[in-house]
Amino acid sequence: MPRSTTPKKKGAPKRLEISRIGAQGDGISHGADGDIYVSFTAAGDVVDVWLEPGPRGTMRASLEAIVTPGADRAERHAVILARAAGVVCNI
Predict the structure, then answer these.
(1) Cα(17)–Cα(78) distance, integer angstroms
(2) SS3 24
(3) Inter-residue contact 60 to 35 (CB < 8 Å)
(4) Please, what sign has the CA dihedral across residues 46, 47, 51, 53?
(5) What end-to-end distance do the CA atoms of the chain give, in Å?
(6) pLDDT tens per residue, range 5-20
(7) Domains, the chain, with CATH or none
(8) Which segments in the chain show pLDDT lower than 70?
(9) This protein's superkingdom (predicted)?
(10) What is the pTM assigned to this prediction?
Protein backbone atom coordinates (compact mmCIF):
# COMPACT_ATOMS: atom_id res chain seq x y z
CA MET A 1 0.00 0.00 0.00
CA PRO A 2 1.47 3.42 -0.94
CA ARG A 3 2.30 5.84 1.82
CA SER A 4 0.73 9.27 1.96
CA THR A 5 3.20 12.10 1.40
CA THR A 6 0.86 14.65 2.99
CA PRO A 7 2.01 15.54 6.52
CA LYS A 8 -0.54 14.86 9.23
CA LYS A 9 -1.92 18.01 10.86
CA LYS A 10 -2.44 18.07 14.62
CA GLY A 11 -5.45 19.68 16.26
CA ALA A 12 -8.08 21.67 14.43
CA PRO A 13 -7.63 24.36 11.78
CA LYS A 14 -7.74 27.98 12.92
CA ARG A 15 -10.49 30.33 11.66
CA LEU A 16 -9.30 33.73 10.37
CA GLU A 17 -10.85 36.74 8.67
CA ILE A 18 -8.79 38.23 5.84
CA SER A 19 -8.60 41.99 6.34
CA ARG A 20 -6.52 43.07 3.35
CA ILE A 21 -4.36 41.94 0.43
CA GLY A 22 -0.58 42.26 0.61
CA ALA A 23 1.86 43.51 -2.01
CA GLN A 24 2.51 39.97 -3.32
CA GLY A 25 -1.20 39.07 -3.56
CA ASP A 26 -1.58 37.04 -0.37
CA GLY A 27 -4.49 37.71 1.96
CA ILE A 28 -3.46 39.10 5.35
CA SER A 29 -5.13 38.50 8.69
CA HIS A 30 -3.94 40.25 11.82
CA GLY A 31 -3.20 37.78 14.63
CA ALA A 32 -2.10 38.24 18.24
CA ASP A 33 1.56 37.80 17.23
CA GLY A 34 1.40 39.84 14.02
CA ASP A 35 0.21 39.42 10.46
CA ILE A 36 -0.62 35.99 9.01
CA TYR A 37 -0.29 35.55 5.24
CA VAL A 38 -2.76 33.25 3.43
CA SER A 39 -2.51 32.49 -0.32
CA PHE A 40 -5.62 32.18 -2.52
CA THR A 41 -7.80 34.47 -0.39
CA ALA A 42 -9.58 37.80 -0.88
CA ALA A 43 -10.33 40.64 1.53
CA GLY A 44 -13.37 39.81 3.65
CA ASP A 45 -13.00 36.02 3.34
CA VAL A 46 -13.49 33.97 6.50
CA VAL A 47 -11.22 30.92 6.16
CA ASP A 48 -10.06 27.83 8.01
CA VAL A 49 -6.26 27.48 7.86
CA TRP A 50 -3.29 25.53 9.21
CA LEU A 51 -0.62 27.85 10.65
CA GLU A 52 3.05 27.36 9.84
CA PRO A 53 6.17 29.48 10.29
CA GLY A 54 7.12 31.62 7.31
CA PRO A 55 10.36 33.30 6.27
CA ARG A 56 12.01 35.94 8.44
CA GLY A 57 9.78 35.37 11.47
CA THR A 58 6.46 35.76 9.65
CA MET A 59 3.48 33.41 9.93
CA ARG A 60 1.97 31.74 6.88
CA ALA A 61 -1.12 29.60 6.66
CA SER A 62 -2.23 26.80 4.35
CA LEU A 63 -5.81 27.23 3.22
CA GLU A 64 -8.10 24.42 4.38
CA ALA A 65 -11.47 25.91 3.38
CA ILE A 66 -13.24 29.17 2.58
CA VAL A 67 -16.03 29.34 5.15
CA THR A 68 -17.59 32.61 3.96
CA PRO A 69 -16.46 34.33 0.76
CA GLY A 70 -15.76 38.05 1.04
CA ALA A 71 -17.50 40.71 -1.04
CA ASP A 72 -14.26 41.24 -3.03
CA ARG A 73 -14.06 37.60 -4.16
CA ALA A 74 -14.70 37.27 -7.91
CA GLU A 75 -16.32 34.18 -9.38
CA ARG A 76 -14.57 32.35 -12.20
CA HIS A 77 -16.32 33.03 -15.50
CA ALA A 78 -14.48 30.61 -17.75
CA VAL A 79 -12.48 27.44 -17.37
CA ILE A 80 -9.42 27.01 -19.56
CA LEU A 81 -7.95 23.55 -19.92
CA ALA A 82 -4.35 23.01 -20.93
CA ARG A 83 -2.69 19.73 -21.79
CA ALA A 84 0.92 19.35 -20.61
CA ALA A 85 2.82 16.07 -20.68
CA GLY A 86 -0.42 14.09 -20.95
CA VAL A 87 -2.02 15.76 -17.92
CA VAL A 88 -5.03 18.05 -18.21
CA CYS A 89 -4.65 21.12 -16.01
CA ASN A 90 -7.29 23.65 -14.97
CA ILE A 91 -5.77 27.11 -15.36
Answers:
(1) 27
(2) coil
(3) no
(4) negative
(5) 32
(6) 455 566 788 999 999 9
(7) 14-68 (2.40.50.140)
(8) 1-10, 76-91
(9) Bacteria
(10) 0.69
